[in-house]
Amino acid sequence: MIIVLQPDATEEQQEALLADLKARGYGVHCSRGVERTIVGVIGTPERDKDGLIEHFESLPYVERVIPILKPYKLVGKAFRPEGTVLNVRGVQIGGGTLCVMAGPCTVESAEMLLETARFVKKMGAHILRGGAFKPSTSPYSFHGLGEEGLKILQEASLETGLPIITEVMDTRDVELVGRYTDIFQIGTRNMTNFSLLREVGNTRKPVMLKRGWASTIEEWLQAAEYIASQGNYEIILCERGIRTFETYTRNTFDLNAIPAIKELSHLPIFADPSHATGKRSLVPAITLGAVAAGVDGLIIEVHPNPEKAVKDGPQSLSFEQFGQLMQAVRPVAEAVGKRL
Amino acid sequence: MIIVLQPDATEEQQEALLADLKARGYGVHCSRGVERTIVGVIGTPERDKDGLIEHFESLPYVERVIPILKPYKLVGKAFRPEGTVLNVRGVQIGGGTLCVMAGPCTVESAEMLLETARFVKKMGAHILRGGAFKPSTSPYSFHGLGEEGLKILQEASLETGLPIITEVMDTRDVELVGRYTDIFQIGTRNMTNFSLLREVGNTRKPVMLKRGWASTIEEWLQAAEYIASQGNYEIILCERGIRTFETYTRNTFDLNAIPAIKELSHLPIFADPSHATGKRSLVPAITLGAVAAGVDGLIIEVHPNPEKAVKDGPQSLSFEQFGQLMQAVRPVAEAVGKRL
Amino acid sequence: MIIVLQPDATEEQQEALLADLKARGYGVHCSRGVERTIVGVIGTPERDKDGLIEHFESLPYVERVIPILKPYKLVGKAFRPEGTVLNVRGVQIGGGTLCVMAGPCTVESAEMLLETARFVKKMGAHILRGGAFKPSTSPYSFHGLGEEGLKILQEASLETGLPIITEVMDTRDVELVGRYTDIFQIGTRNMTNFSLLREVGNTRKPVMLKRGWASTIEEWLQAAEYIASQGNYEIILCERGIRTFETYTRNTFDLNAIPAIKELSHLPIFADPSHATGKRSLVPAITLGAVAAGVDGLIIEVHPNPEKAVKDGPQSLSFEQFGQLMQAVRPVAEAVGKRL
Amino acid sequence: MIIVLQPDATEEQQEALLADLKARGYGVHCSRGVERTIVGVIGTPERDKDGLIEHFESLPYVERVIPILKPYKLVGKAFRPEGTVLNVRGVQIGGGTLCVMAGPCTVESAEMLLETARFVKKMGAHILRGGAFKPSTSPYSFHGLGEEGLKILQEASLETGLPIITEVMDTRDVELVGRYTDIFQIGTRNMTNFSLLREVGNTRKPVMLKRGWASTIEEWLQAAEYIASQGNYEIILCERGIRTFETYTRNTFDLNAIPAIKELSHLPIFADPSHATGKRSLVPAITLGAVAAGVDGLIIEVHPNPEKAVKDGPQSLSFEQFGQLMQAVRPVAEAVGKRL
């Protein structure tokens, strides 16, 4: 932590600051330039940092406080430089494979889900996605089948052997959803729902943490740290687009986040080209781009009849489109040394 | 709802679309221009709209669907053109008064809260704020005193007569917090926590809904509609700054939102200059600007000793600063015809 | 300047860095923490800084470089703490007065401009605005009357005595526009047109520099520094809204920028509520808010018949609306101690 | 164009609007719903559109005006559905090839440029980049060698046979730069410098138009329309990252823009991974991602000694890194059917 003093900080103020720091047990380096005095603080214990930064920033004679270390540790690269590899009922995530999760936005019925599950499996997908509890901007929209949807997912999993991933939105549902799903999904709207993060952190099931639509990479990793801090290290990050001024697409897919996460964290990173674009016609290009940039996996919306989808029809691929995309993904994955 | 067809939509596709619309009971106006055919759909029932828009956008021969009506109704201006006025234990909110909520970010102890409560009351504040459950970007930061904090708030309220407002973050805590607080606060991070919105919607206590840091005004009103749709119309909106590329301030205070809410909704609108800036030195100017632009109230962080604040010290006002600000607010409120 | 080394930087690399810094004549403070080594560099000459920061950031063993001093000097607060006051043909700008510039977006004809000039003068405006060269997103829109428009402005100025402000967009037009106008306006789209900034910096006429719609406050001040670095210190800053994800308004008026500029710079700061909102109905509230937050002046679009305006009709006030607004501004200006 | 009336628009107002539209020669469809009346306007001549939209939006009884057609024509997909292919001194751009432009940010000396030109040619690059006129946020930074830099570029081009691309920033320099360069580059800061766009539109040399850092895809295409409207159709678009709230990277590379441009325009689209990230370590992943997503070319900063680069060192690749990247690009390009 570095503390930059105001140009008009007095001698007394500087002395008081140094005394305070020493009393807290920190080492101190004070460097008096012509225009500013800068205090280097050594040995800040990680856990106190947030509070300390705010404390020193509150002092009237402090211009700003600059943290030096990252505000996360368990999910940081240094914690496990070789990278995290998960095994979800035989499906490997991370470690040189490309994992494909596919399925409808929402579980609408047993028939449509089974039909989709069989098809995506045949095309090479590894995990089945489908929503039973659905967030929705409007209170009057469909919010999912709830536990009935979970049962249908389980059925489809039993028949096809595909593990499943489904979203949980309420701390009170974590236990219920956990009875059915193989992977919890935390949606973009709940990335800063800290109670929920802690609750899934208390389970020992893998969690896919989608990036908040207006969250920085650092905040995203701090959200992952919430989960890890409860003892659950089985975390998958998923870039799903962020909010910008652009209106042609639903979100802006932040491709930079893929290599950035690779250099900052040991966690696997996925892409969600469906939400990142909101437009079916753009999904293939974004999928291929994400694979070439190094993602560990994909999560893609597929529907037997997108025009009749209850939700997210405009961004869902038809079976035919998904089949073609899987064909196109293979050579790109190979070109960057990934096993599909 | 207006449906714009792709330039290459065939006659058959147009006929199919019109037939579909008529079968659903809608009136249809079809206008064939030189380059595009446009279909006006009349009589869309409000509740189906979200699903319908996605349905029609999913059709391969549809270029885009343009909603005409707002996606909220209960919180829309037309629902109650005269404006909503709340009465919280004798304190009027809306309707020409300027209501000031003040207090520390976090309840740290009974002493500091009482001291603050007495002071802000003396300076003319109407409601006491203070956090017992605190969201925090880092899992290692302080998260509030919990129920103990609620009890301290109640005590301070009993002594000073000030009603209280405090944040609730977890659906499981709504009942507990509701036993102590006069107003629920939903923080920016939970504006899209739809389970929580519904839960406070099921109570009959007033709710202050802060704007999500990356939420449009329309999404904010839809979040309010979640609460109202459960039967709770006692809602206060609060602009607390949005996220932009600017880094000098913690957020960007969106002043436009004040008159925009006034023309779109009947709900009272507050400003939170503390979070909107993140910098104590900017709080007075933003407070005065918000008052002149027409807010119904303010929520301001005040701390007996900001340098020792557990959280949000850099944006908290000292007693002296809050006293001076209240002095400065008075003539501006009068200049725009508000009673403080 | 502070240089943070990578955790794996070797002894030799550190030595090389320190030797390099000393050879350049800098003082050096090296602080070796448990996880990072941090090098404080003292005595960085202002002018070299940009290049140096990039140089050190390019080193493979450097994690990041943190500048300590602001990247502008002539326009910084410390350069003239008492604040800059301009005098434009008898009109004072800055120093406790509130200066109102008003007029149409575009000079459409001599009649409409004269009519507007007379009216805004009567209502108390101090300076007449009007565009002769107009930027336009579409190449097919109207681009202004050019020199004819300048002549009309001059005529209106002669008759009413109001000084004029008009935009210049091309380095080749600076001489021509300078023959007619009292103040150059640099539009938001040209805030980073550095050739143009230098060109108006070479004149000795006042320049209003609008903030780039996606420029930080720091970049804005650096753009002002371009003008000042040529010897022209007669600069007025103007906040006109920035670009965000919000779509209800044309831009987001960044109220925080008003007090922020006041603490960072000595230059007068204006607000443009017309462009900041893009909606006539929001202009009054933003105007009052800006005045209460401390602006030194306003620039407002007024048109005798907004429905017939060639450009910016939706955000232009009618005569009646402008008259009412001036009435409303007065008590707010007084409430914050400004002379109108 | 569709005009949505205010709910309280009177019969007379509606009649006046319809009469106005008919007098202008438009066809009109009027659809009266329960809550809104909507007027479809048919036959809007493209060129008048901007003005008309503003005109109708200015009417007090109009809620909003919705344009149906795109505000650009010459650069739109429909104008040349087969796509534009350029030939720059034997180098094909567009049409199934992947074109690589490489070189230093700035021409620093004849030696370094020649060394770089020879190396990038050997590695398979097709065009040499290098700045002679450099934009810079600070007035005190290096601004390029000017004409001397142009001469050095020409020399390197003569020796290696590589065509060159270099930036032009001032309308007054277009003639000069045009004497030396094969392709004009318009930088992100000048995307809305309309005078400059028109000036290069008046030449018959290819122009690379970088996206403005806060410009929508539609505005970018309108800027391209400026160039095309002067008769110069030899335009290359270049996505170089947009500005968001993310601070870890210099910009956010908008991958969605690649397929979006492919569906909206016939112009070739390039990626600039150097500026898109600002970090050398992220350049390879973004390059591969852009290629897989379908770009027609790349423009990459390469420097013989990035640590000594005058500008943009942190994002420049060393020779070794560029050589490795070209190796990695080849199989990805092949996987998506592009010839390198």
TrEMBL record, chains A, B, C, D:
GO terms for biological process: aromatic amino acid family biosynthetic process. It holds the Pfam family DAHP_snth_FXD. Residues 1-70 form the DAHP synthase ferredoxin-like domain. GO terms for molecular function: 3-deoxy-7-phosphoheptulonate synthase activity; aldehyde-lyase activity. The keyword Membrane does not apply. Its EC number is 2.5.1.54. Keywords: Transferase. It is an enzyme of class 2 (transferase). Residues 90-329 form the DAHP synthetase I/KDSA domain. InterPro entries: Aldolase_TIM, Class-I_DAHP_synthase, DAHP1/KDSA, DAHP_snth_FXD, DAHP_syn_2. It comes from the Bacteria. This is 3-deoxy-D-arabinoheptulosonate-7-phosphate synthase.
